[in-house]
Design a protein that fits this description.
Number of strands: 7
Radius of gyration: 14 Å
Distance between the termini: 33 Å
Largest sheet: 7 strands, mixed
Structural class: mainly beta
Helix content: 10-25%
Strand content: 35-45%
Shape: globular
Length: about 110
């Protein structure tokens, strides 16, 4: 039996918010080839994964013109409390531009 290829990175495509504050992130695993479905992780668990996984994290952004997701900017943890990109655009820097999944029902 052949084992699957290891993860090469993680991707974040969206957020869940409660009263405007991010509570969870939509995390995907990037394999060669392919991307996993969404896994809903709490903000704290996602930050812990960014810090401890040893793998890079990127935004996974919907390109409306092309009709598919594309890998975006690198993500890093700041002071173990926030996730940021290196963008100079404040909305993109704070991942505020990613899809809001708050409308999805909890399983």
């Amino acid at each position: 039996m052949q084992k699957g290829k290891p993860k090469s990175a993680y991707l974040i495509s969206g957020v869940w918010r409660d009263y405007g504050q991010v509570t969870h992130y939509a995390v995907h695993e990037l394999y060669d080839p392919g991307v996993s479905g969404i896994r809903k992780f709490s903000k704290e668990k996602t930050i812990e994964l960014v810090i401890s996984s040893g793998l890079p994290f990127y935004t996974w952004e919907w390109n409306y013109d092309k009709g598919h997701f594309e890998m975006g900017e690198a993500i890093h943890a700041v002071h173990d409390h926030y996730l940021w990109t290196t963008s100079k655009n404040e909305m993109r820097k704070s991942l505020g531009h990613l899809i809001s999944y708050s409308w999805l029902p909890d399983e």
